[in-house]
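Table S2 (continued). Query chain:
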Amino acid sequence: VQLVESGGGSVQAGGSLTLSCTTPGYNVTRSYVGWFRQVPGKEREAVVTISEDATAKFADFAKGRFTVSKDNAKNILYLQMGSLKPEDTATYYCVAGYGWPYSGQGTQVTVSS
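Corresponding output:
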């Protein structure tokens, strides 16, 4: 399973970014998918996870600032991030599958103050 993230970059605090995850060969419409992030030296943490029934569960730090969506026709998963903070700086990973066995290479998000 190939997951490819894009859309990361550098932004000032308060700005927005939208991450994309293309998933050739994996159907995001009826699958466990999500976004995690990781800072060097720390464990990877969930940003948002979506179960097969399409229930999205956001981490507390993401609630009210981040949204997630899918383009079912193109099989793309998005993460829209707003009101970004320096502490959101991390590598963001698209994940898929029950227990998250599949992950992309990540895309770097850097938020400057």
